[in-house]
C-alpha cells in the first residue's frame, strides 16, 4: 500500500467496521503491515541490509493494539550500541520518518540505544508508562525484547517512587482537564477517568504491586475507545475531545439514539475508570506500606492468624485503612448494610473497599417503607458535606441510588442543557446536597432542606418540559417509599417547584418591588421556614456552578429580595 493511502484506508475501516475490538484490530494490522513494508525499503536500500542490532517498536495506541483511524504513530527505533553502526542508525531513521511526514501522518518518534531507553524511562514517568507497551514491529527481535525487559524490570524495582509520581501526575491532569464523567465537552483521553487513567491501571498492574480489575472495567475502556474512534470519523482528525456540536453525529456513528446517550455512556465509563483507579492505587499503597489488607492474614509468633478487625458498624469493619464488609451471620447481609457502610465512610473519611462493591450490588434493598433506622443512616450520609460526593460515587458504581430513589435513573449521567453547569444532573444534585451542610443549624428542618436539594432537579428527565413543576410531581413517589411523612413530602414539593424563583426574580425584576416580594411570599405559602430553606437552597444550587454563577452581585440581589419577603412575613398577624 502507498503510504499516502494509509489514512483514507484507515478511515474506511473505521466507517465500515461496527465492532470496536475488530475495528481496532484491523487498523492495527493495516498500520503494522505498512510499517513493515517501509522497514524493508529503508533497510534494503541499494540491496544493502544495514539494520543489524536495530529494531522498530511501537508504543502508544499502536503498541497496545487499540489504535484509531486518526491516532498518531508512536514509534521508537531502538538499537544495541555495541552492534549497530551509528551512521546506519541515523540513515535508517531518516528513511523511516520522512516518508511518514511527507504522507501527512502525525508522528511521535525517538531513536534510542538500549541504555537510553532505560535512562529516559527512569526520568520521564509518561515515557516510562508508554514504553511498558513496547511491541516489536520489525528488525532485531532480541534488541526489542531486551529493551522491553529492561524497562519493565526497572519499573518494578522502582515501584515505590514511581507510584508516588503516578499519583501526582494523575492529580495534575485532573486539575487541568477535569473529570470525563461530568464535563460538557470531555477530553476522553486526558481528563480523570479517561484513557490516560486506563494506562495507569495497566502500569500499576505491571509493577506487580497489585492487579487491576477486568470485566466491567474493560467494558468501560472499550466504551471510551469507541467514542474516540467515532470522534475521529466525524472530525477527520486526531481529536480526543467530544465537542457539543459533534455529539449527534458521533451518536449516529455509534448507532445510539442521540448526543445525550453518548454523554451518558461516557459518564458511566469515566466513573468506572475513576473508581477502579482509586481502588487500585489504594491496594498498591497498601502493599508498599505493609498493610494487612493484602494477605488478609497476620503472622503472630510464627502462626498465621486472622487480621485484627475493628467493627465500626454491624457487619462493617476497618481493614488496612478501608471499610470492608465482615462475613454476615447466616450468610446473608442485612438489607441496611449498604446504608451502614456508606454512613460510616462519610463520617470517618475512610474509603469503601473495592471488594465491598459487588457484595453491595447483590444485597437486598431496605424494605419499603424504610424504617427510621434506614432513614437515619441515609440522612447521616446526606448531611456529611463534601464527604458525600466520594461515597455516592461508590454507591453509584454499585448501582444503588437508582434502586433506592425512583426516577434517579432518569437523571443519572444525564447532560445539562445550560452551559453554566459543570456536572451531569445527578452529580450536580449531590454537589448541591453537600453544600446544604453549611445551613444545617440555620433552618428549622435540615432534613427537608437536604431532601429538596437532592431532588430539586429530578425533573430534568426526558419527556418533562418544566423540570421544576415536573420534579415536584415526582417527589411523593420518591419519598413515600423511604418512609417520609406527608408534611415533609409537601414541604419538599414546594421547594422543588419554587427552587429557582428567588434567583430569577431577584436578577430580572426589582427586588424591592412589593409585587415581586408578594410573588415570593405566595410561592412559599406565607411560611417563614420555607422561605429560609428556599434561600439556603438557592445559594447551594448556584454556588455549586462556580464563582461565575454565584457572584456578589447575585447574592446581594437575592438577599435583598429574601429580606424583603422575610419582613413582609414578620409583619403579618399570626394566623393570617
Number of domains: 4
The N- and C-terminal alpha carbons lie at a distance of 87 Å
Structural class: alpha+beta
For the largest sheet, list the strands in their spatial order.
Answer: 3-2-1-4
Q: What gross morphology would you assign?
A: elongated
What share of the residues does DSSP label as strand, in percent? 5-15%
CATH class label of the largest domain: Mainly Alpha
Number of strands: 9
The CATH topology of the largest domain is given as Hypothetical protein af1432
Structural Rg: 29 Å
Average pLDDT rating: 90
Instruction: Report the CATH architecture of the largest domain.
Output: Orthogonal Bundle
What is the overall number of helices? 25
Main sheet makeup: 4 strands, mixed
- Assembly context of the chains: single chain
Give the uncertain stretches in residue-range form.
292-301
The helix content is: 55-70%
List keywords for this structure.
4 domains; alpha+beta; four-stranded mixed sheet; 9 strands; Four Helix Bundle (Hemerythrin (Met), subunit A); 25 helices; Beta Polymerase, domain 2; single chain; 576 residues
Amino acid at each position: 500500500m502507498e503510504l499516502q493511502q494509509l489514512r483514507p484506508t484507515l478511515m474506511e475501516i473505521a466507517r465500515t467496521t461496527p465492532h470496536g475490538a475488530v475495528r481496532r484490530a484491523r487498523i492495527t494490522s493495516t498500520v503494522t503491515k505498512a510499517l513493515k513494508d517501509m522497514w524493508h525499503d529503508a533497510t534494503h536500500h541499494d540491496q544493502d541490509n544495514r539494520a543489524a542490532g536495530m529494531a522498530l517498536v511501537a508504543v502508544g495506541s499502536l503498541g497496545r493494539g487499540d489504535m484509531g483511524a486518526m491516532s498518531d504513530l508512536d514509534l521508537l527505533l531502538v538499537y544495541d550500541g555495541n552492534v549497530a553502526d551509528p551512521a546506519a542508525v541515523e540513515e535508517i531513521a531518516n528513511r523511516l520518518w520522512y516518508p511518514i511526514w511527507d504522507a501527512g501522518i502525525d508522528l511521535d518518534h525517538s531513536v534510542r540505544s538500549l541504555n537510553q531507553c532505560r535512562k529516559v524511562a527512569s526520568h520521564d514517568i509518561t515515557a516510562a508508562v508508554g514504553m511498558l507497551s513496547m511491541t516489536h514491529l520489525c528488525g532485531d527481535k532480541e534488541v526489542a525484547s531486551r529493551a522491553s525487559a529492561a524497562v519493565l524490570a526497572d519499573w518494578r524495582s522502582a515501584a515505590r517512587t514511581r507510584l508516588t509520581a503516578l499519583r501526582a501526575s494523575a492529580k495534575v491532569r485532573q486539575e487541568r482537564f477535569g473529570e470525563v464523567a461530568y464535563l460538557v465537552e470531555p477530553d476522553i483521553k486526558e481528563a480523570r477517568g479517561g484513557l490516560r487513567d486506563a494506562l495507569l491501571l495497566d502500569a500499576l498492574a505491571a509493577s506487580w504491586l497489585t492487579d487491576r480489575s477486568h470485566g466491567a472495567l474493560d467494558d468501560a475502556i472499550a466504551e471510551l475507545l469507541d467514542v474516540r474512534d467515532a470522534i475521529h470519523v466525524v472530525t477527520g482528525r486526531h481529536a480526543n475531545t467530544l465537542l457539543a456540536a459533534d455529539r449527534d453525529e458521533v451518536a449516529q456513528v455509534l448507532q445510539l439514539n442521540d448526543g445525550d446517550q453518548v454523554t451518558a455512556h461516557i459518564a458511566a465509563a469515566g466513573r468506572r475508570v475513576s473508581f477502579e483507579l482509586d481502588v487500585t492505587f489504594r491496594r498498591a499503597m497498601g502493599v508498599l506500606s505493609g498493610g494487612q489488607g493484602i494477605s488478609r492474614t497476620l503472622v503472630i509468633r510464627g502462626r498465621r492468624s486472622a487480621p485484627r478487625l475493628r467493627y465500626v458498624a454491624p457487619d462493617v469493619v476497618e481493614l488496612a485503612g478501608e471499610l470492608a464488609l465482615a462475613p454476615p451471620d447466616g450468610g446473608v447481609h442485612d438489607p441496611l448494610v449498604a446504608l451502614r457502610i456508606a454512613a460510616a465512610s462519610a463520617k470517618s473519611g475512610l474509603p469503601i473497599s473495592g471488594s465491598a462493591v459487588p457484595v453491595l450490588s447483590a444485597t437486598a434493598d431496605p424494605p419499603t417503607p424504610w424504617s427510621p433506622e434506614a432513614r437515619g443512616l441515609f440522612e447521616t450520609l446526606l448531611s456529611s458535606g463534601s464527604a458525600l460526593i466520594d461515597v455516592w460515587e461508590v454507591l453509584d458504581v454499585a448501582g444503588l441510588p437508582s434502586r433506592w430513589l425512583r426516577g434517579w435513573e432518569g437523571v443519572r449521567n444525564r447532560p445539562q442543557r445550560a452551559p453554566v453547569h459543570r456536572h451531569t444532573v445527578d452529580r450536580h444534585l449531590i454537589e448541591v446536597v453537600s453544600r446544604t451542610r453549611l445551613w444545617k443549624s440555620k433552618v428549622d428542618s435540615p432534613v427537608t432542606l437536604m431532601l429538596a436539594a437532592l431532588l430539586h432537579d429530578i425533573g430534568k428527565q426526558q419527556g418533562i418540559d418544566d423540570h421544576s413543576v415536573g420534579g415536584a410531581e415526582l417527589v411523593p413517589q420518591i419519598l413515600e417509599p423511604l418512609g417520609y411523612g406527608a408534611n415533609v413530602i409537601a414541604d419538599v414539593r414546594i421547594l422543588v417547584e419554587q427552587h429557582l424563583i428567588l434567583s430569577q426574580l431577584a436578577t430580572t425584576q426589582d427586588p424591592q418591588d412589593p409585587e415581586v416580594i408578594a410573588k415570593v411570599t405566595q410561592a412559599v405559602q406565607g411560611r417563614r421556614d420555607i422561605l429560609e430553606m428556599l434561600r439556603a437552597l438557592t445559594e447551594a444550587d448556584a454556588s455549586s456552578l462556580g464563582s461565575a454563577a454565584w457572584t456578589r452581585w447575585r447574592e446581594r440581589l437575592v438577599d435583598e429580595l429574601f429580606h424583603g419577603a422575610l419582613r413582609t412575613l414578620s409583619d403579618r398577624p399570626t394566623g393570617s
